[in-house]
Specification:
By secondary structure, the chain is of the alpha+beta class. The chain contains six helices and ten strands, in the order ββααββββαββαβαβα.
Length: about 220
């Protein structure tokens, strides 16, 4: 959108790091959804470079080397894009590290090790892909799960999956049909449409008669 003014706050942490705060209203005005930020696209890249231009003009932040991007929901009104220059020139391509959380969790320490995470969230573009994944999941008696529709995609949250072996099996199945995201279930339930609030996997298997004789993994 040529000539449009971007309303935001820019904080230069140091010569290698800048934080750009921008409201969800601004995102909506530019016809960019939160889901767009999780996937690289021409629209989001154009938006990103406009932000970098503003950062260069306002706080003298020059992006002259490879870098990382981290987009984090900072509050109910805004999110922050953190841009960090890489020390080593390992790749000139834009690297995306996407985290989304709600305001209650914004100070919680994060871990990149999925097996240490309390909650997994997978997104599926197609409902049939979701059902295909659920059909192949092993029995998880103690697990908790929910299903949310957000911007025409389906988000399945899983927790208390079980043993490390079972987690590996679940991960392999989910990665085949969906995409893992670092986004909180509480955020999805607040901004999306809750389809199944509890025991989503069990409910889907029962409702659509999804059985897998090979799924009884201990």
């Amino acid at each position: 959108m040529e000539g449009e003014v971007i309303v935001m706050r820019i904080l230069k942490v140091n010569d290698n790091t800048v934080r750009i705060f921008i409201s969800f209203n601004e995102l909506s005005d530019r016809n960019i959804t939160l889901s767009d930020l999780f996937q690289r696209s021409g629209r989001t890249e154009q938006f990103f470079w406009e932000l970098i231009t503003k950062a260069r003009e306002e706080v003298d932040f020059n992006l002259d080397q490879p870098f990382w991007i981290q987009a984090t929901v900072a509050s109910e009104e805004e999110f922050v894009i953190t841009v960090i220059k890489q020390e080593d020139e390992v790749d000139s391509e834009i690297n995306h590290i996407i985290h989304a959380t709600n305001i209650e969790k914004k100070n919680t320490a994060k871990t990149s090790d999925k097996y240490k995470a309390e909650e997994w969230v997978y997104v599926f573009e197609d409902f049939e892909d979701l059902l295909s994944a659920v059909k192949r999941l092993p029995e998880m008696p103690q697990s908790q799960s929910s299903l949310v529709e957000y911007e025409d995609e389906y988000y399945l949250s899983l927790s208390k999956i079980g043993t490390a072996r079972k987690k590996k099996i679940v991960e392999a199945i989910m990665d085949e049909f969906g995409e893992s995201l670092m986004i909180s279930d509480s955020f999805l339930k607040e901004h999306g449409i809750v389809i199944i609030e509890k025991k989503a996997v069990k409910t889907l298997k029962k409702k659509f008669n999804l059985s897998n004789k090979d799924s009884a993994v201990s």
